[in-house]
């Protein structure tokens, strides 16, 4: 019995530490993002099986303040999601614009069915 209780406690502690140490995840409604220099964070957007994808759009964020760090897909409570990952480089403020597009070329925001999300990122 004691071994089971200790195992359960260790699993619970691992889960808490993983959540505390993992990158912060923001959603489409989090238009103001505040992070510290060196932090990594993700913006989660609903995945669209209709051929659309989410990309960082022009004008791109100031690379001295914010750097894209890749993307990955995962399931969330609402279904499949795409996570766009970023790293806060140094203190400053920049805008981050995402667009959901099919061709994702110049003028992607004007494609039929396109959608944009805008974020203000402050790195302290």
TrEMBL record:
Q: Which domain of life is it from?
A: Bacteria
Keywords, in A-Z order: Protease inhibitor, Thiol protease inhibitor
Q: Which SUPFAM superfamilies match?
A: ICP-like (SSF141066)
Q: What's this protein's name?
A: Proteinase inhibitor I42 chagasin domain-containing protein
Taxonomic path: Bacteria, Bacillati, Actinomycetota, Actinomycetes, Kitasatosporales
